[in-house]
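User: quick one, fold this
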Amino acid sequence: LDFGVLGADKTLEGFDLVCTGAGTISVAWDETNFASATPPFAFDGDTLPGIGGLPFELTAPSMQIRLTFDAGEAWEWEALNAYINARPSN
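Assistant:
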């Protein structure tokens, strides 16, 4: 996802997840290297009630959101709201 101007750095400041089920989320930043991703961050269901946005800072020109739900349980993903700061860096 480019989240704005192609090739310009954007800062992911955090996200909200609307889902049922537990799993991990990570963010990749280099389309030419599949291994270039943040370590997985565990979540347990919907992050909106009582928690608000989960901080998750990363600066890159584009990002790939990777959701992996735990095996053996029912899950449903409804939405992900990414908080992006797309201001040009100095």
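User: anything notable?
Assistant: The beta strands are 10-20, 22-28, 41-44, 54-60, 64-69, 76-85.
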